[in-house]
Each structure stands twice: as C-alpha cells, then as structure tokens.
Amino acid sequence: MKRGKWVALLSVVVSLSMFLAACSGSNQGGAPANSATGGQGSSQQEGKTTLRIAWWGSQYLHDTTQQAVKLYEEQNPGIKIEMEFADFNAYVDRLSTQAAGNNLPDVVNMGSFLSEYAERGLLHDLTEFVDSGVIDMSNVDPVVIANGTFSDQLAGISIGQNALSIFYDKELFEKANLSQPELGWTWDDYIEAARELKKQGLVEYGFTLATNRDLFDYYVRQRGYQWFNEQRNGLGFDDDQILIDYFQMLQSMVKEGIIPPPDVNLEYNATNNSMLVHGMAGMMVGAWSNTISDLNDSAQRPILMAPMPGPGEESGMYLKESQYWSIPKSSENKEEAAKFINFFNNSIEANAILAAGRGVPINSVVREEIRDKIDNSILLSFDYIELIASHSSPKNFNLPLTFQENVSIYTQIEEKVLFGAITPEEAAKEFRTRSEGVLSQ
C-alpha cells in the first residue's frame, strides 16, 4: 500500500477507534484508553505518581494481574496505577489508536508486534535501567535480553517463556486404549490417534486447531525455512509444495471430520470454551503452553501437554516470549515504570499470585521459589519448557512491519481451503502473490 493511501486509511481507523472508545470505554473492565490526562502516559493524582499500565489476556490473567498491581500499590504508597486491559484483538486496536495519538500508557504489553513499535521509534531503550539495576536481570538467561533487542536497543523485556504444544484429554486416550503422545510422534501418529478417538465415538472431532498462523509458521520451520526472508521483502521459502502439502493436510482432515470447519471452530475459539474443554475433541493442536492451567480449570479433568508433531520438530520448535513489557518514549515517568517491570518479573510474592499465567518466569530464582506455591497443572508448563529447551531452535525475529496484514492474508486463504472453496494449489498461488505483493512495498 502506498504511503498516501496508508495515511488516509490510518486516519479513518484512528477516528473510528476513538469514536468507539468514547462510546464503550474500556473492554472487560479496564480503565478507558483516555483515562490519564494529556498525551504523556502519566498524571499526578492526590500527590501520587500515576502510572497507566496496559495488557491483554484472558479473564484469568486480568484477575491475577489486578491482584499483583494491588500488591505493588500497597508496597509503594506513592504510586497510583490505572489499569487498561482487554482481549488481544481489542488491545491491539486500542494500542494502535493510542500510538497515533501519542497517548500510550506508561507500561505496555507487547507481543509479536514489538519489532514494529520499536522500528517506528515509539519505545524507550530499557538498557539504562538494566545497567543501573533498576530492572534486575542477574538471574535471567542472557538470551531473554537478546530476544527483546532490536537495532541494538532493548525494546521489551519478556514476562514469561512459552512454547507451542498439543493439549490432549488423558481420560479419552485411556478409554481409547491409545498411547499418550510423546516426543517423536509424527503428524501421521497424531492424525491416526485423532481418527481412532472419532472412530470409537468418544469425540465429535479428533483435533481442534488452537491457532492458524503459529501452526503454519511451525510447519514451515519444520522444513528448515522461515515464513519471511531475511530482508523481510518476501517469503522465506521458494517451494510452493510446502504450502500445498500443508493445505492438503488440513483440507483432508476437514473432509474426514478429524478437525472442524472454520465456522464451527470459531464458536469454540476461547481456551475456556474450546472443544477440548467441552469433550468434543480429544486434542488441541498448536496451543501455547502457558494456557494449560486455564484449560484444566475450565475442563475440570486432566488435560496434559505433548510436543508438536515431527519429523523436524527440533527445527520447528522454539521458546517464545508470551508477552513483553515495554515503556513508550512518551512516558513522563520512565524510571517508575521500570521499577514496576522489575517488581513484576522479580518479586516472588507477585509471581506466586501471577502463577505463571503468562508463561514460565524468566527469573531462575523465582521459578524455584514458586514451585511449591502453584497448582500442579501449572507445573506442567515448567516441565514442558525444560523439555522443549533442549529440543528447539532459535526464534525467528525477522517479522516485517506488514506482519499483521500477512497474517490476515494467510487466515483468509486458509479459511477458503478449509471450506473447500479453492484447491490447495490455488491457495498456494494466491498466498504467494498476495503476501509478496504486500511485502515488496
């Protein structure tokens, strides 16, 4: 999209978003996006320093994060925190609007879009706070800093480690007399297990798909490639047979009834409302490990996790920051914001409350100290991360500024494939043409 068209489109989006925000306020109980005065991300209230802190997540994350925030205010009586939270899509839309209006909160959650905000010059370099000890990283693997660094600037600090996984219903596997999934299982092994669960009448679908873009990215990495090339102006693989094979696999599973069509899957796309929770599916493929506790709480029966399918799983797997904390350049209280980030990652008391809801804590001392303070279902993610750490490859950081648009293109095409509206060959051609058309600009 040319710059003129992009600016025009952005203006429309910003105007609409501001109108909607004014009408509805904050989503899911968080403070409204314009809750702080001015456009600087902080304010003074009753002699206290006010920090605006924003995050996305499930209701479970909202609840535990608010408890941790309350603890911080109790320990720091000079600080007043205004909270802004929502589900992911609403959060991303709001953040984009706030960035356009120079009204970002003091502390913001970042995800795969961290590099975009960093390259746009919107985020403060956190290196000074790490060097000064305001943010203590002494018990953190150096790779965590590397993972949040772009153009030699520390744009974000990880909140927790995460990895793709397959969740499965332990009781259903036992009823079907199936071996439990383990490292080394292939796509064929998983598909055959799903087929057997359905054949025995234990489930309506063998699989439910937790995520489309991450599952596709994993499939490409399995084959030794990346979604995008190093220059970020094209796809990272030349052979369209990769796409064709992947789309054929998904399409055949829909036709066989192993996975649901998109419209059915959409009805159960929340973790606590998934087909796995309702006993309609035996497995959830491509889920993030940090959601295991929420899933077990919702299902009220043992849900376990297993590594993603092979072959090539060690190339496909990687450890990922579930979320980052970042401080916008527009914040007037950067040091106070940094102190909050330090508390969030390094306080044992806070992390006992947070209970690894955003992934395994990055601080090794915190990890050990809270092991006996959290549920066994959460400990599953600790053990899983330890397993995957030695069976994974470095994460890919070359996400283009058009990443969200590329994800949208992929999602649209995958949906057409699953509905049988186009063939895998047609889908592969359309995907390359549209993706590289966006990337080349």
UniProtKB/TrEMBL annotation:
Presence of keyword Signal: yes
SUPFAM superfamilies: Periplasmic binding protein-like II
Domain of life, per lineage: Bacteria
InterPro entries: Bact_solute-bd_prot1, SBP
Keyword terms of this UniProt record: Signal
Xref: Gene3D superfamilies: Periplasmic binding protein-like II
Keyword presence, Signal: yes
Pfam families: SBP_bac_1 (PF01547)
Signal peptide coordinates: 1-22
Stored PANTHER family: ABC TRANSPORTER SUBSTRATE-BINDING PROTEIN YESO-RELATED (PTHR43649:SF11), ARABINOSE-BINDING PROTEIN-RELATED (PTHR43649)
Protein name: ABC transporter substrate-binding protein
